[in-house]
Design a protein that fits this description.
35% of the residues lie in helices and 15% in strands. By secondary structure, it is an alpha/beta fold. It has a single domain (5-275), classed as Alpha-Beta Barrel (TIM Barrel). α5 (131-138) links the parallel β7 and β8 (143-148). α4 (103-114) packs parallel to α5 (131-138). The longest helix has 18 residues, at 258-275.
Length: 303
């Protein structure tokens, strides 16, 4: 892929109020993401800057260089109630630029000093670089790390998440965090129709997560809103043309029909139960994990 550039940009605020989500506050140290995931729902955010959500989203990254200082100011306000904050809701806080700018680490240092609960969502084992901070903070406040793992099929992974770390490395990073007492689990999301919605794909991720001691696993089917479908659907037409008509059928709206989502979620739920992953994200206990079954049940056609 082409070389990417980073534009340093100051920010006035960092902790953002979120509506319509299962959390109230978020932080995104970067804007744009080098991971270049074909399904990324944050692509339209670059359009607000007069840029496109295709190449520019993954090749022009904005780094909020003063974010750690701003976070300290915001956490120190008398009005701040110490709520949990999720880092990485739009773009990955451990994408490639973080190795140089260390903005996410600076933010976590502030959370440690203020003993404020935090959650992190990432596709990168780079989070282990900050294990010292996470361990310190976990002694005083709740710390949770979510690893997004869409598939363990490396051929497919290279197509849909071209510059991310290998999926099994994310699983191993999760295992390491769990071994150090950090609550951690998997986002099996998004589930991609015709690509990762069959039982073998789902079971591979769920079985690996269970073997690594995941505290939780959540999943959600692909949503294609404006600015995302314009990038993802041409990818399907080029790489998987035989799926084109099915996507046209499923995505007459931003989300597929409810029956499709229900079938996927039911299968995920059954597999979570089989492998002993807590249904509601409760702390994982020692469990006996069965071997994956050699079944082949396609959910793509909602059979």
């Amino acid at each position: 892929m082409a070389h990417f550039t980073v534009r340093e940009t100051p920010c006035k605020s960092v902790i953002n109020r979120v509506q319509g989500m299962p959390f109230d506050w978020s932080i995104n140290p970067y804007r744009g993401c080098r991971h270049a995931c074909v399904y990324c729902y944050a692509r339209p955010t670059h359009e607000y800057l007069g840029m496109n959500g295709a190449d520019e989203f993954q090749e022009v990254i904005f780094a909020k260089t003063n974010a750690p200082e701003v976070v300290r100011r915001e956490l120190g306000r008398r009005s701040w109630r110490g709520d949990n904050v999720v880092i990485g809701t739009a773009t990955d806080p451990y994408q490639q630029a973080e190795s140089k700018y260390r903005i996410t680490r600076g933010i976590l240092e502030a959370f440690r000093d203020f003993r404020n609960p935090v959650s992190i969502t990432t596709k990168s084992p780079m989070v282990l670089r900050d294990l010292d901070l996470l361990t310190e903070l976990a002694g005083h406040a709740e710390v949770t790390v979510h690893f997004t793992v869409t598939t363990l099929d490396e051929a497919l992974w290279r197509k849909i998440e071209p510059t991310t770390s290998k999926p099994h490395k994310r699983i191993e990073a999760m295992r390491t965090l769990r071994e150090h007492g950090i609550r951690s689990g998997i986002f099996l999301s998004p589930v991609l129709p015709g690509l990762t919605d069959d039982t073998p794909h789902l079971e591979a991720v769920i079985a690996a997560a269970a073997h690594a001691g995941a505290d939780f696993l959540f999943s959600q089917v692909l949503r294609l809103g404006p600015g995302i479908s314009e990038y993802y659907l041409p990818f399907i037409q080029i790489e998987f043309p035989d799926l084109t008509s099915r996507y046209e059928e499923l995505y007459r709206r931003n989300s597929p029909p409810g029956i499709y989502s229900q079938v996927v979620q039911r299968r995920v739920g059954e597999l979570k139960e089989r492998y002993g992953i807590p249904a509601h994200g409760a702390p994982a206990k020692q469990r006996v994990v069965p071997a994956p079954r050699a079944t082949q049940l396609s959910l793509f056609g909602v059979h």
